[in-house]
Please model this.
Amino acid sequence: MSTVEKLKQAVMNGNREDAEQLAQAALNENVDLVDMIGELSDGMGIVGKKFETFEVFLPEMIAAADAMMAAMDLITPKLQEQGVEHKKGKVILGAPEGDMHEIGKDIVKTILSGNGYEIIDLGTDVNSLTFIKTAQKEQADIIAISTLMTTTMPGATEVIQLLRDQGIRDEFKVVVGGAPTSKEWAEEIGTDGWAQDAFGALNLINGLMNK
Amino acid sequence: MAYRLWEVMKRSKNGEFMEEKEYLHKRLIPGIAGVVKKYNIKYDRSNPVPSDDELADRIWQAAREFFLTVGVYNQDTHRIIKFSEEELNEALYSAPSQHLVGEGKDARIFGHRQVEDKRPPFVIYSPDITYDEENFLSICLAYLKEPLLDGLCAPVLEQFMGMKITSRHPVELGGSMHHAMSLREAARLVGRPGVFFVAVGTAESDVGQIHVSDPNWGIRPSDGRLVGSITEFMTNNSMLNKATHYQQYGSFGGSLTGAIFGGYAGGAEGTAVLETAYHLKGLMVHQCQFQQNFPFHLKYGANTTRELLWVVSMYSQAIARNTHLVQDSNGFSIAGPGTDMLYYEAAAHSIASTVSGANLWENAPAMNKYHNRGTPLECRLSAEVGHAVAVQGMTRKEANEIVNKLLAKYEDKVDNPPLGKTYQEMYDINRAEPHVEYMDQFKRIKEELSGMGIKFLF
Model:
C-alpha cells in the first residue's frame, strides 16, 4: 500500500495522528499534491456514503473530517507555494437569530469542509446582518442558513430582504435547510436553493458553484 | 426542589470552562461511547420491544455514569454544570412520583408507570405543528373534544395578525398570547375549563413563555410548561430563565429532549443511553417535574422506525424500573394524516411506549414539518391503543410480536411516505369533527388492530 493509500485509510478510520504523519511522509516523498487531495476526497466520500446509509454515525464522520483537516493543514501551505487553488468555494454558515440548534449545521459543516469548501461557521443565534457583513468581509460565495424552528425561519427571509434592500442580492448565493423548511418555502422567500440534508446541501452548493 | 435553582445558577457561572466544540468532541462523544462499551449495551433489531430487564438496568447505570462524569454544558457561559452522586440520589429520592395537574373536575393524576403496568397511560394530545391562524380555534376545539385526552399541548401558530411569528420578536408575544387565549376559550366552550395544558408551543423564547403566565387568560400554575433542548446535553441562559420562571410561578416543568439517532450519540445504543440521561438533566438542571422524550432519527425526524422503537422501549424501561420519575413518550411519525401508514406507526409507538412504562404524548405526523398536517384522529388511535394494551395486561413479549407485524406494514415505505391530508381536508372545520370517510378509515384500522390482538375498550 502506498503512503497516499495509507493516508486515505487513516482519514477513513478517523485517525488524526496517523493522518498527520502520513501526510508529512507523502509530502517528503514529493507526491503530487492534487492527486493526494483527490485521494483524501475519495476517502471522505466513502465515509460520507456510509454515514448516509447509517453504517457509521456522526462521531465517525467527525473523526474522519478531523483527520482530513489535519492532513490538509500540512498540504495547504505547499499548495500555496505552488500557486494551486484547491478550495471549491467559501461558505458562511449559521443558524438564525433565536435558533440555538447546532447539530444540523455542524453536520453540513463537516460534509462541506471534508469536500473542499472553506467554512466560516458563525454558530447559532446569528443576526441577519451578521451573515451579510461576514459574507462581504470574507468575500464568500455562499450564505448557508440552517434553522430548526418555525419561529426562526423568518431569519432566513430577513437575510434575503436585507440583501435586496441593499442592492447586493446578486453578490451571494443563499441556501437554506433544516427540519421545518421545505423547497416550496425556500422558493417563496427567494433563496437560491434548499436541501433536505447535509448531502443534499453538498450537491446543491456544488451545483451553484459550477454555474 | 426549588432551592437547587440557586446551585444551578452558581455552577452555571463557576463550573469548568470549556469551548463548546471541545465539550462535544472530547467529553460527550467519547463519554457515550465509553459507557455503551463498558455496560455492554447491544441493539437487537429483531426485538423492537425487548423483554430484557438486565439490559434496561445496564442502560440506567450507563446513563447515570455518563451524567455524573460528563455534566451538562451551558452554551452561554461555556461552563459545565456537574452534580455529585449524593445530590443525584437525593433528587431521585425526593422527586414526586405523581402530580395532580389541571383544575377542578378536569384535574388528573399524571404519574409514574411501571413496565407492563395495567394502569392506562396519561395521554397528552399534540400535533406539534403549525396551523392557519383562521382555523386555530377550530383545531383547538377538535383536540379538546377528544374523550381520552388528559392534557393538550399544541397546535402551534405560525402567524399573528397576518405577520410571521419570529422568536424574541414582539409578534411572538402577540402570537403566544393569542395561542393561550384560544386554548382557554376552546376549553371553556367544550366544557373542560380546567383541563391540563402544556403550553404554549408558539412561544419559542423565554420572554414569550414568561409573557403568557396569567391565571385568568393564560397559562396557570396547574398547567405544564416545557424547557426544550435538542443540541445534545446542553442548556443556555434562555432555558434556565424558563426553568426558573416555571418554578417560581408554580407550573409543572417538563423537560423536552430528543436524543438524535445517528448524531453525536451514534446508533441505537448510545441514543437510548443519552435519552435516559436526559431524565437526569431535566431533574437536576431544569428542575422539571416530568420528562417528555422524543428521540428521533436523523434522517426521518421520527421515532417509529425499528431502531427508534427499540430506543423508546429501552429508555422507558430503564426509567420505569430504576426510578419513580414521571415520563412520557412523544410520538413522531413519518406518514401524514389520513393514511393507513400513519395509523400503523402511531399504534406501534403507543404499544412500545405503554408496555415499557411510559405515558403518552401523541402524535406529530408527516415528519413534523408540514403546515396543517396533523389531526386528533391519529392521537385518538394512539390513546385507545395505549389504554387497551395497558388494561388487557399486554406483556413486552406480546407487544414485540405486534410491533413487528406493524413494522412489516410500513418499514418499506419510510423513504417514500405518503404526505396525507390536512386538517381542513379531513375535518368539518365549523363543527370540529372528522368527515365520515375518515371515521370509516379509523374504524377499519381498529378492526385490523383487533385482529392482531389489541382488545379495545370500546
About this structure: The two ends of chain B are 41 Å apart (CA to CA). Residues 98-452 of chain B form a domain with the TIM Barrel fold (CATH 3.20.20.460). Chain B touches chain A at residues 20, 25, 29, 33, 75, 130, 156, 158, 164-169, 172, 202, 204-205, 230-232, 236, 238, 260, 262-267, 270, 298-299, 301, 367-370 (CB under 8 Å). The longest strand of chain B covers residues 224-229.
